[in-house]
């Protein structure tokens, strides 16, 4: 039997799905509802596999499979993007939204088939449901997609299959099945988009900052795969290996990534980046301010480690201490969202690349900083960092950045959407920076009434909702581009549902919550 928290989490996801399709009901709505129903049943099989140790790969154990909430994210994002771009009359991105939705459904269906296939005895009812859902999805795709779009969807699925086999084997206990679906599905889509755009380069077409995101993500992922395979055959902790690591990073960066980016943007990437960063005085002020905040975050890390050394080696950072970084990230993103979103977009990409590179140095114990990073970051580990990688800080960055990166700029007149859609770039700030932080701080210090079956409290959730409403009011005051057009009831419902999801989900909330809040705001 599914336990009560999983049932409530599933109910919240179903409500969000129905809310979305109450606004945008079309042929894809039948697919999304069918996918949600079969994902609910298959999630039960995945949970049983994880409990019995019957899964092919080693997944994160302190959580359920999370298949249902993860399965719905990419399809709902695609459907919301399709509707926004359709209303704006941008046919290219309307078709792109359809491809995104179809790809998300097919990848989620593939993961469901894997779970059903390895379950013994074979669950007859779940197989029938999966077959019905698959038939509806494939029938709809057949009558909605062109041949080139079908090929694109299959390409993403193929990349997803290979990435899953490689990364889930190399990185045991780092993901739940749902988290793997989100992370690897996103990386697969980025890989496919970069290959597609590299083969069809048209001078002057496309925004350089979009190409910068694609190349940066693919570059750091390929760098990690290269060194993971390499260090199977040699000890990564020696000085010779460390020198080779730094040398090959420079060679791959300057010899592969830079020329690749040059081909896409048709100009020198370094000169373009420097010109972009220092183009206006506002950008210089923002960069100086962000540098100060980064130094403050480093100061918190060093101070807490000094405190651990003086008190006890078993000392771990408290929940409130870890939320310091949430406050710092909020202070980082809000000025960027108000004054220069393009700069924030590029700065977040750079920060992601730096975070991943530092994680490689820590994971491979690259001298001279690898062991030091291991010692410093071990203080901030929690039950979600059960694998060889430390990913919580990267998930925090992704949760704040994804609404900025996924904002459909071509379909937004004057750079902003109408109604609740104007808050889409703020989804990460509201869900993670404000909601999750306030819920955690107030729930752990003053909460007494616990939600059934969880450690989260009623007081924490209600305080989170209230704090996010106050944050929306402050955004209205300070950001003149935001015009909600009396969509206050929808905003309150969206914030409340996502806050309830935070209380019941065992998935990485830094990644899941902003995406669901973005979906609700976009529709």
Which key features would you list for this structure?
single chain, 523 residues, mainly alpha, 0% strand
Q: Calculate Rg over CA atoms.
A: 22 Å
Number of strands: 0
Helix content: over 70%
Q: Shape from CA axes?
A: globular
The N- to C-terminal Cα distance equals 34 Å
- Helical segment tally? 19
Unreliably modeled segments: none
Q: How many domains make up the coordinates?
A: 3
Largest sheet: none
One letter per element, helices H and strands E, the order comes to: HHHHHHHHHHHHHHHHHHH
Bin the strand percentage. Answer: under 5%
Structural class: mainly alpha
| Overall pLDDT confidence | 85
Gist of the model:
This protein has 523 residues and is an all-alpha fold. Helix content is 75%, strand content 0%.
Structural overview:
- This is dolichol kinase.
- It is a multi-pass membrane protein.
- InterPro entries: Polypren_kinase.
- It is found in: Endoplasmic reticulum membrane.
- This protein is mainly alpha-helical.
- It folds into three domains: 1-198, no CATH class; 204-269 and 340-377, no CATH class; 380-522, no CATH class.
- 75% of the residues lie in helices and 0% in strands.
- Helix 2 (27-52) packs parallel to helix 4, helix 4 crosses helix 6 (147-170) and helix 15 packs parallel to helix 19.
- The protein is globular.
């Amino acid at each position: 039997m599914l336990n009560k928290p999983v049932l409530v989490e599933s109910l919240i996801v179903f409500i969000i799905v129905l809310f979305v399709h109450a606004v945008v009901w079309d042929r894809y709505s039948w697919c999304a509802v069918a996918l949600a129903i079969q994902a609910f049943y298959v999630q039960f099989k995945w949970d049983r596999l994880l409990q019995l140790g019957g899964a092919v790969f080693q997944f994160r154990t302190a959580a359920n499979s999370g298949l249902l909430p993860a399965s719905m994210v990419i399809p709902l994002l695609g459907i919301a993007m399709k509707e926004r771009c359709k209303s704006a009359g941008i046919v290219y991105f309307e078709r792109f939204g359809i491809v995104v939705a179809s790809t998300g459904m097919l990848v989620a269906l593939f993961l469901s088939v894997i779970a059903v296939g390895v379950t013994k005895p074979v669950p007859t009812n779940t197989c029938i449901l999966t077959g019905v859902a698959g038939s509806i999805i494939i029938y709809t795709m057949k009558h909605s997609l062109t041949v080139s779009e079908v090929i694109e969807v299959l390409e993403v699925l193929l990349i997803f299959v290979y990435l899953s086999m490689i990364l889930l084997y190399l990185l045991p206990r780092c993901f739940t099945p749902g988290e793997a679906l989100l992370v690897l599905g996103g990386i697969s889509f980025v890989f496919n988009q970069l290959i597609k755009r590299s083969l069809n380069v048209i001078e002057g077409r496309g925004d350089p900052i979009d190409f910068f995101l694609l190349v940066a993500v693919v570059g750091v992922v390929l760098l990690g795969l290269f060194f993971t395979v390499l260090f199977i055959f040699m000890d990564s902790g020696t000085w010779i290996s460390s020198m080779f690591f730094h040398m090959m990073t420079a060679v791959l960066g300057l010899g592969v990534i830079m020329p690749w980016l040059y081909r896409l943007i048709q100009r020198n990437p370094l000169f373009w980046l420097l010109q972009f960063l220092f183009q206006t005085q506002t950008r210089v002020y923002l960069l100086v301010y962000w540098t100060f905040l980064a130094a403050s975050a480093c100061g918190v890390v060093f101070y807490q480690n000094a405190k651990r050394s003086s008190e006890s080696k078993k000392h771990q950072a408290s929940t409130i201490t870890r939320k310091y970084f949430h406050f710092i990230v909020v202070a980082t993103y809000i000025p960027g969202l108000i004054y220069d979103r393009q700069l924030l977009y590029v700065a977040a990409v750079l920060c992601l690349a730096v975070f991943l590179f530092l994680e490689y140095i820590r994971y491979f114990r690259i001298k001279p900083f690898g062991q030091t990073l291991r010692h410093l970051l071990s203080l901030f580990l929690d039950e979600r960092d059960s694998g060889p990688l430390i990913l919580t800080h990267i998930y925090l960055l992704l949760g704040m950045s994804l609404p900025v990166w996924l904002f459909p700029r071509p379909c937004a007149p004057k750079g902003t959407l109408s109604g609740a859609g104007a808050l889409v770039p703020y989804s990460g700030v509201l869900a993670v920076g404000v909601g999750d932080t306030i819920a955690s701080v107030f729930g752990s210090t003053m909460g007494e009434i616990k939600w059934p079956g969880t450690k989260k409290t009623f007081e924490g959730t209600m305080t989170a909702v209230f704090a996010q409403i106050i944050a929306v009011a402050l955004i209205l005051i300070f950001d003149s581009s935001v015009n909600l057009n009396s969509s206050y009831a929808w905003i309150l419902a969206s914030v409340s549902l996502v806050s309830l999801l935070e209380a019941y989900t065992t998935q990485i909330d830094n990644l899941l919550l902003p995406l669901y809040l973005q979906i609700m705001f976009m529709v």
